Amino acid sequence: MPIIIADIMRTRVVTVEMDDRLTVAKEIFEQANFHHLLVVDEYKLEGVLSERDLLRAISPNLGSSAETAKDLETLQKRVHQVMTRNPVTVAPHVSLDAATHTLLEHNIGCLPVLDNGDLVGIVTWKDLLRTYCEHNEVNESEC
C-alpha cells in the first residue's frame, strides 16, 4: 500500500498572522526546532515564511556590537511583506512520491496540507527523507 501524506504529515502546525511583526517570527524560530511558519488570515492559509526568508529580511548586524536603531527597525516589518504568497500545497491523500516530486519541481522546503481548503498539516523535505529511510530500512547514520 503506498504511503500518503496523511500518514506522515505533522498536524501540530504553528502559524502567524499576516500583520504580525518579524519579531514574532524570529522569537518562534529561536525557540522551535523547525524552519517554516504558515501564514494565515482568519484561519485561511495565505503564505509561508521560512527561516531563510526571515534572515534575508532582517539586518545581519542584529545582536552584534555593530547593531544600530536602523538594524532594529528591520524587525518591525510585517510578515506579509516577506512571506511567500500562494504557496504550493498538497492534499492529505497525495502519495509520498507525488509530494516529493512537487517539492523538487518547485524547489521548496515544505508543503502545507489542505483538506477542502482547511489547513490540516505540514510536510517538509525532512519528513519525506525520514519516511524514505524508515521504509527502506536505511540506518540513520546512512541517511
Automatic annotation (TrEMBL):
Residues 9-65, 83-138 form the CBS domain. Pfam families: CBS (PF00571). The keyword Amino-acid biosynthesis does not apply. Gene3D superfamilies: CBS-domain (3.10.580.10). InterPro entries: CBS_dom (IPR000644), CBS_dom_sf (IPR046342), Diverse_CBS-Domain (IPR051257). Keywords: CBS domain. SMART domains: CBS. This is CBS domain-containing protein.
